[in-house]
Design brief:
The chain is built from one helix and ten strands; from the N terminus they run H-E-E-E-E-E-E-E-E-E-E. The protein is mainly β and 167 residues long. The protein is globular. The longest helix has 4 residues. A hairpin with a 3-residue loop joins strand 8 and strand 9.
Length: 167
């Protein structure tokens, strides 16, 4: 239902027309070790449009491990990319609205871990692919690949929103 609302009403920046076919998209992708509070858990957002209106497609919404929250999406009223665990792309000094959907390329469990590959195509002149290797109780690796689709002077910023104050 949410996908079918894209491009039908309201503000153009949060009700954009779909950029991908429905079968290529995802709403949320979750990786978890179990249901206990100390179990590892990671959630990735697949949409950057709709009534929520946050520009956080392909961003990590939450990551917990060893019973603690490490990455958070705790800025409910702040919708722009710099307030999320995401990548911000400026082209020739100018930002743009993130496309409404990220694409799910792969999600595979192997042994005691998982590998995911998701892509936000046509994001201000770039294709942004986020690879996550999730091995509970050991590590999580995030590898971002950005490929220019158009010529330009690009500025890229990877944002990590941590819980509490860092020291």
């Amino acid at each position: 239902m949410h996908y079918d609302l894209f491009g039908t009403r309201g503000r153009a920046d949060i009700w954009q027309k779909p950029n991908l076919l429905f079968e290529d998209t995802f709403d949320k992708l979750t990786l978890r070790d179990g249901w206990a509070a100390e179990d590892d858990y990671l959630m990735l957002d697949g949409t950057a449009a709709g009534s929520h209106g946050h520009l956080d497609g392909n961003s990590i919404i939450a990551f917990t491990a060893a019973g603690a929250q490490w990455l958070v999406d705790a800025e409910y009223i702040r919708r722009i990319t710099k307030y999320h665990c995401t990548v911000t792309v400026l082209r020739n000094g100018v930002g743009s609205i993130m496309p409404p959907s990220a694409r799910l390329d792969h999600a595979v469990w192997f042994g005691n871990g998982a590998l995911t590959r998701t892509t936000m195509p046509h994001y201000n002149g770039m294709t942004w692919t986020r690879n996550i290797i999730f091995v509970p109780k050991r590590y999580v690796a995030v590898i971002d690949e950005l490929t220019a689709e158009q010529p330009g002077d690009y500025s890229l910023r990877c944002c990590w929103r941590v819980a509490g104050e860092s020291t």
